[in-house]
Amino acid sequence: MAVTGTTTPPSTRLSARRIRLAYGDRVVVGREGGLDLAVPDGALTVVVGPNGCGKSTVLRSLGRLLRPSAGQVLLDGRAIESMPTRVVAQHLALLPQSPTAPEGLTVRDLVGRGRHPHQRWFSTASAADDDAVGRALAQVGLTDLADRVVDELSGGQRQRAWIALALAQETDLLLLDEPTTFLDLCHQLEVLDLVHSLVHPADDPADDPAGAPPPRPGRTAVVVLHDLNLTARYADHVVAVQDGAVVASGSPAEVFTEELLEQVFSVRARVLEDPVAGGPLIVPLPARHAVVLPACAVPARTPTRTPTRTPDQTDDQTDQTTDRPLTAGATR
């Protein structure tokens, strides 16, 4: 089942045309006819799919870290592999999964590394570099922690520091591979709020000091996520990947159907209306109730029954007679 949004295709600076991606002889993406993907300009695109489906591999290819064995990735109409590395880095920033900083590196020094594409060999940081680092730190709210060692930051602060590095590159395209991994819910929301504000600055007005230049236009972001409900809440455009192929793309409401969730994620669920955001809200169904519940119902947990234990019963025997509550696994 392939689903494509019904809206008019938007403009795109970054796209993939019939790409096939492999690690050695093992083809991961585009086994049959290659993979096509267009990243809408000025939008937050989220790539979803089960573990091992090729999401991160696609992102690495869009960032020119993995060269396709067939097909092309295009940046501004040019094959990205034919472009000089420095030129690509001036247009596109990629934040990989779980990056690590050298021991003892401060936040300011980390963010300053984002200026390398704009510097010449052996040159020192210019006033323009310092200004770019300062702006990036301010955007992520880390100005007061600029001289703190990265390893001393909380998980959410550390991820914001890495995003600031990408912002210091001053690119219009941001690629983020699972930026919420290992973060608690509060820090996940913190990071996604930040990414959303970078794409849609008009939706998050800030009190700028008098005389400050107007905020730059919104960026284009591509993010790999596992949490489908956070995707539905934040994404403008969703791309669902299964077995190295795009099986659906469009708005969250167009992509997140009950049929697709069962096909791609092997999860039976009800798709309801989010009472806060108005978009889709995915409620996974426990296996024992997946067939019998009506379409509008949300399954209730089975209450725990305390078993009666006789004096000659062992713990194992008692445990076998216990009806334990059934809980649905969290979707990541």
- Per DSSP E runs of 2 or more residues, the count of β-strands stands at 14
Helix content: 25-40%
- Percent strand: 15-25%
> Strand order, biggest sheet?
1-12-11-5-10-9-8
Shape: globular
Structural class: alpha/beta
**Cα end-to-end separation:** 23 Å
Mean pLDDT: 82
The main sheet comes to: 7 strands, mixed
**Number of contiguous helices:** 10
User: Uncertain segments of ≥5 residues (pLDDT<50)?
Assistant: 207-213, 292-332
Instruction: Report the radius of gyration as a whole number of Å.
Output: 23 Å
Secondary-structure element sequence? Answer: EEEEEHEEHEHHHEHEHEEHHEEH
General description of the model:
There is one protein chain. By secondary structure, the chain is α/β, with parallel strands linked by helices. 26% of the residues lie in helices and 21% in strands. The strands form 3 sheets. A 7-stranded mixed β-sheet has the order 1-12-11-5-10-9-8, with helices on both faces. Strands 2, 3, 4, 6 and 7 form a 5-stranded antiparallel β-sheet that branches.
Which descriptors would you attach to this protein?
332 residues, alpha/beta, seven-stranded mixed sheet, five-stranded antiparallel sheet, 10 helices, 26% helix, disordered C terminus
Concise summary:
With 332 residues, the protein is α/β, with parallel strands linked by helices. The protein has 10 helices and 14 strands. The strands form 3 sheets. The chain has a 7-stranded mixed beta sheet, sandwiched between helices. Strands 2, 3, 4, 6 and 7 form a 5-stranded antiparallel beta sheet that branches. Strands 13-14 form a two-stranded antiparallel sheet.
